[in-house]
Automatic annotation (TrEMBL):
This is Alpha/beta hydrolase. Keywords: Hydrolase. It comes from the Bacteria. Residues 6-62 form the Peptidase S33 tripeptidyl aminopeptidase-like C-terminal domain. The keyword Cytoplasm does not apply. GO terms for molecular function: hydrolase activity. The keyword Hydrolase applies. It comes from Streptococcus chenjunshii. SUPFAM superfamilies: alpha/beta-Hydrolases. InterPro entries: AB_hydrolase_fold, Pept_S33_TAP-like_C. The lineage of its organism: Bacteria, Bacillati, Bacillota, Bacilli, Lactobacillales.
C-alpha cells in the first residue's frame, strides 16, 4: 500500500460482517493519506444506511 499516494477515503460500518472493522483500521494505518469513516450500528451497506451523511462526508472529503 506504500505505492498509494493520493488521499483515500475508507468507509465501514462497525457491524460489517463482510469487511470486519479491524481490517478497515489496518488499511487506514497502512495507507498514508487515508481518512477512515466508521458508521455506528451499520453493516456492509453503511453507505445506504447513512446515505445523507455518507454523501456529505464524500463531498467534504473531495473538498466540495
Amino acid at each position: 500500500m506504500a505505492a498509494v499516494i493520493q488521499p483515500v477515503l475508507i468507509v465501514n460500518g462497525d457491524k460489517d460482517m463482510m469487511v470486519p472493522t479491524e481490517n478497515s483500521y489496518m488499511m487506514h494505518e497502512t495507507i498514508k493519506n487515508s481518512q477512515l469513516l466508521n458508521y455506528p450500528n451499520a453493516g456492509h451497506g453503511s453507505l445506504f444506511q447513512y446515505a445523507e451523511r455518507f454523501a456529505s462526508d464524500v463531498f467534504s472529503f473531495l473538498g466540495e
